[in-house]
Each structure stands twice: as C-alpha cells, then as structure tokens.
Specification:
This protein is mostly helical and 54 residues long. The protein has a domain of 25 residues. The protein is built from two helices and no strands. The longest helix is centred in the first third of the chain and has 28 residues. The chain is rod-shaped. The chain starts with a helix and ends in a 12-residue tail after the last helix. The model has no long low-confidence stretch (mean pLDDT 79). Pfam families: ATP-synt_8. Keywords: CF(0), Hydrogen ion transport, Ion transport, Membrane, Mitochondrion, Transmembrane, Transmembrane helix, Transport. Belongs to the ATPase protein 8 family.
C-alpha cells in the first residue's frame, strides 16, 4: 500500500518539523542564563604576581 507509506512518511515529516520549530522557538524565547560572577577574583585590588618569589 504505497498510499499508506506516503501518508506515514508525510505525517512523520510534518511532526518532526513542527517539533523542531516549537523547540527552537521555546529556546529562543527564554532569556539567557547569566553566569554568577566570581566574587573572590573581583575583590583583589592588585593582581597577584607569582613570579616575584626571589
């Protein structure tokens, strides 16, 4: 039954594209997650120079 095979292929094709469209729309509509800042790295007033041991 080629009609059933074509209908099943078309159904799967449409469902997969609709699912991808929904997923990408949901991912693009969510705001990006901000990474927490490293507080210990920002509180140092001068950079540590590890090569001044001698």
């Amino acid at each position: 039954m080629p009609q059933l095979n074509l209908a099943w292929w078309l159904f799967n094709f449409l469902i997969s594209w609709i699912t991808l469209l929904i997923v990408f729309t949901a991912l693009l509509s969510t705001p990006p997650i901000e990474k927490p800042t490293n507080v210990s790295a920002q509180t140092t007033s001068h950079p540590l120079n590890v090569w001044t041991w001698n």
